[in-house]
Amino acid sequence: MTASLSADSTSTTEIAASVAPAPVHVFPLVRAQTASPELGPLLSEQERIFRRRFGRNVASAISTLREALNNDNLDGWLASGPEGDGYALVVPTVATDVLAALWVDSGQYELARTLVSHVQKIAIERGRRLEAQDLGFGEDPLSPILRAQSCASFRRLYLTGPTRHGSRPVAPSWCSFRTFRAGDLVAAASLSVRAFEGVADVRFAASYRSLGGAVERLAVTVDGNSFGPFEPQGSPVAIDAAGRMLGFAVVTRIDSSVAHLAEIVVDPELRGRGLGSLLLTRVLSMARCRGLSEITLCVTADNHRALALYERKGFRLSRSFEAHVIEPGNNGTADGHNLPGDPGWKSSGPYKNEPFQ
User: Fold this and answer.
1) Average pLDDT along the chain, 357 residues, taken 10 residues at a time
2) Are the beta carbons of 305 and 337 closer than 8 angstroms?
3) Is the pTM higher than 0.90?
4) Domains contained in the chain, number
5) Is 75 in the same domain as 180?
6) The domain that contains 62 carries what CATH number?
């Protein structure tokens, strides 16, 4: 998940008093509580429901959350009320705070609202931007709660595609391919920042705006196991004759037969020359050769160039969900990071799940 929340004329004390009913208690999570009677069953329930909902094994992601909490790499809060329990986990990054997980017992909307409001209060006090993506894809209470905060909402698409459309492409004369290496992280992050300049993703994910944020984002995927184990042998890098990186793809394995394309980037100076298609074809081919039959990815709905490529390669819409953000201190209105022509950080409301074009 990800979100961004801002201060308004109401003080944080008033916010806490107005949204945290007396029967609901919110307190920080500490190491000893990762296997507590409250948190342990919630993590197990989240894993069970996500596997049923998406047909995927998310045990590695849950394990990563436990490990990060135990290593003090994220902030956690547990909410306990008369009707059930819930938790929120926030990852402080270079660029922003990321609401990594929000989970409550079934039907406990007020419990979820209390947790979100508590996270909002902490973000206000820190002066930090907070980002959240509704990983429940509209079935969890996060999106309506954040819409009520008048935050910006961006439609994201979860696509799935078969690997059979991949073949080992012949590299053009101006580039060659190799696999992703440990030393590629900074070059890949630098290329990513340039490639995403002016793209909608920078509006809801601050990690696309700076080199430090991009390095951290890629490191989480490559080293953090948050999207399943990284697959270096399935992650191609395009280089020129001098070894300069022209494009790359980062792929993980989220199940025994399913890969996830976490990121695919092409040098903006080379757009229109077919490098994105070559990289994606190579990703599909490498996945198929390793026994993977399906690949998933997430893309912003108004990234029409990428959507056209994915559709040509056989990807189809599985679900849509929302990314949310409000910058601190501006009540969700436009700031210096907005793109030209952006009408401002106003909530766009719920989206329809129409197929992508």
Assistant:
1) 30 40 70 62 73 63 68 78 81 82 77 85 84 63 69 87 79 94 95 91 88 92 81 96 97 92 96 94 94 94 91 92 75 34 32 30
2) no
3) no
4) 2
5) no
6) 3.40.630.30
